[in-house]
Amino acid sequence: MFTVFSRIKTIWDKQASYNHLLVTEKKLKKERQSLETEVKNLDDDDYVVKYARDHYIFTEGDEKAVILPEKNHKK
Fold first, then answer.
1. What is the per-residue pLDDT for 65?
2. pTM for this one?
3. Blockwise average pLDDT, block size 10, the chain, 75 residues
4. Cα first-last separation, the chain
5. What are phi and psi of 10, to 5 degrees?
6. R_g of the chain computed on alpha carbons
7. What φ, ψ does residue 47 adopt, rounded to 5°?
8. Is 2 within 8 Å of 8 (Cβ atoms)?
9. CB-CB contact of 48 with 42 (8 Å)
10. Which residues of 25-55 are buried (b: 16+ CB within 10 A; e: fewer)?
11. Residue 9 carries which DSSP code?
């Protein structure tokens, strides 16, 4: 009887592990798809320029960037 219970528990544990791996696989596939999209976007010069302008205050030509201080919202 103990052997049967032990084998059933082993099967349940392996099933739980398998289900966890399936969830992890889905997450990784989604992340991979996102990264592949980002790689494609980085091959596009217009995207790179827009990204640089949005995130790194990149300017074009005679433009000047002015960084305004953030207001403190202390009460």
1. 80
2. 0.57
3. 90 97 98 96 91 83 82 66
4. 68
5. -60, -40
6. 26
7. -65, -45
8. no
9. yes
10. eeeeeeeeeeeeeeeeeeeeeeeeeeeeeee
11. H
Residue 11 is encoded by which pair of tokens?
A: 């099967």
Q: Are 65 and 59 in contact (CB under 8 A)?
A: yes
CB 47 within 8 A of CB 41: yes
Instruction: Look at residue 74 in the predicted model and tell me its pLDDT.
Output: 62
Which residues lie closer than 8 Å to 42 by C-beta, 6 or more apart? 48
HSE (side-chain half, CA atoms, 13 Å) at 22: 6
Backbone φ and ψ for 55, nearest 5 degrees, come out as: -105, -25
Residue 52 near residue 58, CB atoms below 8 Å:
yes
Q: Give the DSSP letter string of 16-64.
A: HHHHHHHHHHHHHHHHHHHHHHHHHHHT-HHHHHHHHHHHH----TT--
Residue 30 carries which side chain, given as an amino acid letter?
K
